[in-house]
Every structure is written in C-alpha cells, then in structure tokens.
Amino acid sequence: HDVNHLLGVVEETLSEERRQRQVIKEMLQKYQHLAHHDTLTGLPNRSLFADRLQQMLAQAKRSTTLGALLYLDLDKFKPINDTLGHDMGDLVLKEIASRLHTAVRESDTIARIGGDEFVVLLPAIESKQDASTVAEKIRLALEQPFEIKSHSINIGCSIGIAVYPEHGIDEIGLMKNADTAMYHAKKNGRNNVQMYHQGMDP
What we know:
The protein is α+β, with helices and mostly antiparallel strands. Helix content is 54%, strand content 19%. The N and C termini lie far apart (82 Å).
C-alpha cells in the first residue's frame, strides 16, 4: 500500500513537473515571437527582417536567382491618426497587413519597420520584372478604399524597388537604394512604383 502511495506521489510530481516545463516552453515561444514581431500587425519586425534579408542574400549568392527588396511608405496615413484617432489608424494598419499577405507568395517576407513603413523581401525571383509585378499588385491592393467602422478611407502607397545584385550586394546598399527609389515614387506624385537605377539622387 505504501509503495503504491509512493508511486502515486512520484507520478503526480512528475506530471506536475512536465506541466510546468510545458508552460515555460510556451512562455518562451511567446516571448520569442514578441521579440521578433510587431505587436499590432503580427508582422515580422526590424530584427527578424534583418535576419531574413541576410538569408535572402546568402541564398541568392549560392544560386543564380535574384532577390528583391521593396520599400513601401503609406501615402496619406498621418491624417487618419490626426482626424480619426490612433485606434482607427491601428485598424487600418492591421487591414494593410492582411492585404499585403494576399499580394505576395508564402516564401516572401513582409515586415513593419516603422509607423507607416513596410518592407517586402522577394527571394528567388527570375527577373526584375517579377519584382515590379509584385510591387504593382501591392499598390493596387492598398489603393482600394478601406471600409472600417462606417468610414471609407483612401490611402495608397509609394514603393521603391532594389534588386540584388544589380542595385546592391549587401543589406545596407539594398536598403539605401530601395529607400531612394521610394522617395522618387513620392516625388512623382505618390501612389506609384519606382525601380532604382544608377544615377537616382538620394
């Protein structure tokens, strides 16, 4: 009887330990997710984006495929926060994240790196035209009005594209040139896509 009781106590202790280990494991997973994702949209944040960008460049160097970085800045987003409030702005950002997912492949990475700034990584593309096609899909997706809480909100976005290796062979070069191209999209009346080319002024 004592032996059975003892076994019962041991089993209970072990199952409690297993449960606690599971709780700790889940907490760690949650923490790791929070450390690498934007809390509002659930998209990768700047640190996870940097990792994925390194992976994309390593993959492109090993193979003969290209990789592209799209730098995306929302047009007319600030007035939403100013006139309709930050809660409405947050709802729009969440909707933007879900629209972005519909415009890209499973293997592509979308990250939010600033208030109204997003980047998209397109690994393993065949040509510059592939990057332009995706950028145009994104532009059209975000050009449609956002119907939120009886408001119809029009935003749009300006997108700059830099393609590895032609427009940069490392993270800094690609980011800088995609950013330059995005500013040109802004200067050209917004809501358009610009591919970086040699001689574009920063």
